[in-house]
TrEMBL record:
SUPFAM superfamilies: YWTD domain. Keywords: Glycoprotein, Repeat, Signal. PANTHER family: PEPTIDYL-GLYCINE ALPHA-AMIDATING MONOOXYGENASE, SMP-30_GLUCONOLACTONASE_LRE-LIKE REGION DOMAIN-CONTAINING PROTEIN. This is Uncharacterized protein. Signal peptide: none annotated.
Length: 245
């Protein structure tokens, strides 16, 4: 902590599709087992892996020809990737290139067995898949092995009521099943207790802006072990930290 300058650990060689380049990286996770970064390199339509060992100058292609957005890994090291073209989430073993559909995969739509531009995803310890279903303005929950999901947050169309979301993106679910979601179009972060019909605004919701209590298109979120919430405030080009009770 205390660093004022970051260090490039992947890419950094201008925009491009060489193995030492990235183009529109939109999500990343750390695979501790191999000490590597797994990156959704969105405009190159690929998922790449970069070793974290010093001296690494390029990545390797893990999965090619995929319109990836969100990445997640479960306790058994299965990798989950959302595909915004195929409107599905697949689960992959680390060396498996094909994967298995675990959510969606039935074309673009609003049915309980469909998704519409799935963005960020979260996997709990039971391998339940939570998906920010951006085009349907809700968060879907798919229990392991199920052919249909259930609406876990939103689901009342695009809007700014407490029962609604607008193009949801970043997602986190705690051990009680409470959902935290970046409500992109409403410039706020919502909290939805398990089974609730409406959520509460925990930060933002004060209109679009650059004030300390405002966002402009919040897109990603995560928590640290001290219950601090970090929000990627996209159009304000910043990351904000909030202490959450």
């Amino acid at each position: 902590m205390g660093d004022t300058n970051g260090r490039v650990v992947a890419g950094g060689n201008a925009t491009g599709n060489r193995l030492d380049q990235l183009n529109g990286p939109i999500d990343v996770l750390i695979d501790k087992e191999t000490n590597s970064l797994i990156i959704c390199d969105s405009r190159n339509r690929r998922v790449v892996r970069w070793s974290r060992r010093s001296g690494t100058t390029q990545g390797e292609i893990f999965i090619d020809n995929i319109s990836c957005w969100g990445l997640a890994m479960d306790d058994q090291r299965y990798l989950y990737i959302s595909d915004t073209d195929k409107h599905e989430v697949r689960r992959y073993q680390i060396e498996d290139k094909n994967g298995t559909i675990v959510a969606g995969g039935n074309g673009k739509g609003a049915g309980l067995n469909q998704l519409n531009i799935p963005t960020y995803i979260f996997i709990d310890q039971q391998q339940t898949v939570y998906v920010s279903d951006r085009g349907n303005h809700h968060v879907m929950k798919w229990n392991k092995g199920e052919k249909e999901g259930i609406v876990a947050a939103g689901g009342q169309g695009d809007g700014n009521a407490l029962t609604q979301l607008s193009s949801p993106t970043g997602l986190f679910v705690d051990t009680l099943g409470t959902i935290y979601v970046a409500d992109f179009g409403n410039h706020r972060v919502m909290r939805w207790p398990k089974g609730a019909k409406q959520g509460t605004v925990i930060v933002g919701g004060n209109g679009k802006g650059e004030g300390a209590n405002q966002f402009y298109d919040p897109i990603g979120l995560s928590f640290d072990t001290h219950n601090n919430l970090y929000v990627v405030d996209n159009e304000n080009n910043r990351v904000q930290r909030f202490s959450i009770e």
